[in-house]
Amino acid sequence: MAMQGNLHVMTVADLIQHNCQDRKTARIIIEHNGDQGLLFFRDGAVVHAALGELQGEEAVYQLLSWHDGQFSLEVGVEPPLLSISRSWSGLLLEGARRLDEADNSLSLIQESKTMTTKKKSELLADALAELLSESSDIEGAAIVGMDGLVYSANVPQRALDENMVGATAAAVLGLSKRSANQLKRGNFHQTLIQADEGNIIVVGLNEQTLFVGLTPKNVNLGMAFAEVRTMAGKLNQIL
Length: 239
What we know:
This protein has 2 domains: 3-86, no CATH class; 113-238, Dynein light chain 2a, cytoplasmic (Beta-Lactamase, 2-Layer Sandwich), CATH 3.30.450. The protein contains 5 helices and 11 strands. The chain has helices at 12-22, 57-64, 88-134, 162-182, 221-238, and strands at residues 3-6, 26-32, 35-42, 45-51, 54-55, 70-75, 140-145, 150-154, 190-195, 198-204, 209-216. A 6-stranded antiparallel beta sheet has the order 1-6-2-3-4-5. It has a 5-stranded antiparallel beta sheet with strand order 8-7-11-10-9, with helices on both faces. Helix 2 (57-64) packs across helix 3 (88-134) and helix 3 packs antiparallel against helix 5.
């Protein structure tokens, strides 16, 4: 009867070490996410391995990266061919080295993504600050995702919650799009909300992002719209 187990309990490296130290002739079948790998042992060595189109050492290194799955061991099964000459300890050392390199590469990729995201957010924040400093009509602005997530904001009052700006902008967008569609006015471009203390202008930067501009009261709306369009164009280049 074949011995069966789980890779959470005994890893592929453990299986190789134990079976080579026991010096048995055996075959191990390993299953992971619908894939099946084979390891063959004889005289204290791994003599053959197969995984899909991979054979030999490369199959062993791929199997060593599996951290979950099932295995079954059958004693007395002869290898169909000999494809590995390296010692079992050498295989484990090389496999560990490759796994370390893969982990380091993944860390570098994640770090690079983080740096890229951070750089973009910093660019957006700097662009907002610069554009607002040059504007006489727009006193606050935010860049918001369609789901209300605030990517960057520069609002005039400290008491004004940036998250509320994002949620409000997303709600305004949804209503504006539905209204334009229901009244057969075509695609949404921008929305103006006028209030006692000022105005809110919502413009789509692209399919995923909005620009929200806040103006004081008694501004020239034509100039405000022109400045918003200029700001939106520059910010869209960063996005």
